[in-house]
Amino acid sequence: MAKNIKAPEALKPHRFCPGCGHGVIARVIMEVIESRGLTNNFILNRGVGCCCNLRSIEVDGLQCSHGRSCASTRAMKLLAPDTCFVTYQGDGDAYVIGLQETLNAAYAKSNITLITVNNSNFGMTGGQMAWTTLPGQITTTSPYGRPVDGPLPIQIPEMIANSFDPAFVARASVQSPAEINKLKKYVEKAIDAQMAGKGFTMIEVLAPCPTNWGLTPEKAIEHVATDMQKYYPLGVFADRT
Amino acid sequence: MENAKARVKGELCKSCGICINNCPKQAISKSGQFNNGGYDMVVVDEDKCIGCGICYTVCPDYVFEIN
After folding, report:
1. Taking the domain B6-66, which CATH number applies?
2. Does residue A115 belong to any structural domain of this protein?
3. Which of A8, A167, A232, B7 is the most interior residue, by most CB within 10 Å?
4. Does A2 touch chain B (CB under 8 A)?
5. Mean pLDDT in each 10-residue stretch from start to end of chain A (241 residues)?
């Protein structure tokens, strides 16, 4: 039963906060890339936000302008169609500042993989309210909680799955070992679909942000598993792989 | 292979405790010793460890290696 397990070589110590979900997601991506033999034919583009800290990974990649990572990645994919491209963005980057680029990439059926990390606030700048913030959630710019009668948290994966005929769209979480294994299966599907040229693939990952939520890592994971999933149900929304 | 255990690279640990909560055998605990980052490193009780790899799966900081 027991076997040797070691994190991929490209992963180096990073600067994320204790209990942050980004580290697990980065590891899952690199495990899949390594298992597919794509390490030397892979480009990881990063949006702006906490995901900038992923410069610690030793793979090729571009630090894109804020929100424009999908557009940059589409251009790079046109120039290198046989290379595997992943654009790694936060929710503030992909869903607020870069919403236009994200939706246009999906609409154009660009053959790229988008991985968004949803922690329901703008993490790097100190936890401001984003469009993904839950009603009632206290952030630095909504000290009385986000208004409950205002707009609801934005659900981009559902929107793309229902409107643009993507190759694969799913929402996963890093709340437990079982969900992390599911996330790995989704990433495998998305990368395989991209390499087969099937079109736009996207995975949203719910991740804890203990620092900005003001919770311990344990409570933050509990919050992901309970409160966040009322607004962000897990599962596969589109799959024609 | 049957004696595979979780090995700890303490310098990487940020003391978040996610591994402690998920270990099915309660084999992981905080050691009381601090690394260069100022975090209380975790330690694995090798008598209890079954090498299942769950700590490797949940750790955001790549602290664990199973061998």
Report:
1. 3.30.70.20
2. yes
3. A167
4. yes
5. 80 93 95 94 95 91 95 96 96 94 96 96 93 95 93 95 96 96 97 96 96 95 94 95 85
Q: What are the sequence ranges of the domains in chain B?
A: 6-66
Q: Tell me whether residues A19 and B60 touch, CB distance under 8 A.
A: yes
Q: What CATH number did the domain enclosing A78 receive?
A: 3.40.50.970
Rounded to the nearest angstrom, the gap between the alpha carbon of residue A127 and the centroid of all alpha carbons in its chain is 17
Question: In the prediction, which pLDDT does A226 show?
Answer: 95
Q: How many domains does chain A have?
A: 1
How long a stretch of residues is chain A?
241
Inform me whether the C-beta atom of residue A3 falls under 8 Å from chain B C-beta atoms. Answer: yes
Nearest residue in chain A measured CA to CA from B20: A218
Angstrom CA distances, B61 to A18, A142, B13, B18, B65, stand at 8, 31, 7, 11, 11
Indicate whether A91 belongs to any domain: yes
Please give the DSSP secondary-structure letter assigned to residue A212: H
